[in-house]
Write a structure and sequence with these properties.
This protein has 275 residues and is an alpha+beta fold. The protein contains 7 helices and 14 strands. Strands 1, 2, 3, 4, 8, 9, 10 and 11 form an 8-stranded mixed sheet that branches.
Length: 275
């Protein structure tokens, strides 16, 4: 990373997915509660996601991808988002490419159905623990990962003063109607479909812990009423890279982000440290 201060850690490429559905009372997003032993955002309500694996960058995956980015790094991040969604919440954005089952590719082609997804369920564990590879999974099971179903929503980089940093791309995706989202029980210990407004209210009330980047993106998602609105509005927007910084002022220390990134809140006063 050019211009990185001496001693700053290099951010790890990562992906986060905002899985959406239209609920009875409006747009809902799937969120999970991080395990208390996870070293980042433990116990917090977050979107499924995680760091990119080396295998996500494998060019041998290209024939098994629909609508992937041409840039190798962004292509790998898209793959990471789909893999993490499957591992963490059991939703697989993929199409059946087996002979006699091929439903075609492209945005209008259907995702695999619930029966096929159930048969693939064991791979959630074996992909997570490394006993199965992603390339072997898609090749042996006759799958194409539906990168065309991802809409780039946001790009955040952990501040340079933090010891562990992530370069994270956020994506929207519509959950297939017959896919049941369930947390993995390893990295996440609970899950919920929630209206963005309700998640924000819970964070403000202190009944849910939602870290700054997640909360800002939940608030942004709350500007849309339906999945279609969110997808169309996001496709028409400009993604601004967000690298937060702190400012010491007379009335405290503030965490700041670029106003042009389009969030309702561009600064937040940080709690004072005791002692």
């Amino acid at each position: 990373m050019s211009g990185q201060p001496s001693g700053a850690s290099r951010p790890i490429p990562s992906a986060t997915i905002l899985m959406l559905r239209d609920g009875a009372d409006g747009l809902e997003v799937f969120m999970v509660v991080r395990h208390h032993q996870i070293d980042f955002a433990s116990g917090a309500l977050v979107f499924p996601g995680g760091k990119a694996d080396a295998q996500d960058f494998d060019p041998a995956l290209i024939p098994y991808l629909d609508g992937a980015a041409t840039d190798p790094d962004m292509r790998a991040i898209q793959v990471s988002a789909i893999r993490e969604a499957f591992e963490e919440c059991g939703i697989l954005l993929a199409r059946d490419a087996r002979p006699g089952h091929d439903s075609g590719d492209g945005e209008g082609a259907p995702m695999i159905g619930a029966d096929r997804l159930l048969a693939l369920e064991p791979y959630r564990t074996t992909l997570h623990d490394g006993t199965a590879t992603l390339l072997g999974f898609v090749r042996d099971e006759g799958l194409r990962l539906a990168c065309d179903q991802l809409v780039h929503f946001a790009h955040w980089v952990t501040p340079e003063m933090m010891p562990k940093r992530f370069d994270t791309h956020f994506f929207l995706a519509a959950a297939p109607l017959d896919h049941l989202a369930v947390h993995d029980g390893h990295e996440s210990v609970d899950s919920v479909w929630v209206r963005p407004a309700d998640a924000v209210a819970a964070a403000l009330a202190g009944t849910r812990t939602i870290i700054f980047p997640t909360l800002r993106n939940v608030e942004k998602l709350d500007t849309f009423n339906t999945v279609a609105d969110a997808m169309a509005g996001t496709r028409a927007s400009r993604i601004v890279r967000v690298l937060p910084w702190t400012e010491r002022r007379a009335d405290g220390t503030f965490l700041c982000i670029p106003p042009e990134a389009g969030y309702a809140v561009s600064e937040e006063r940080m709690p004072e440290r005791g002692g």
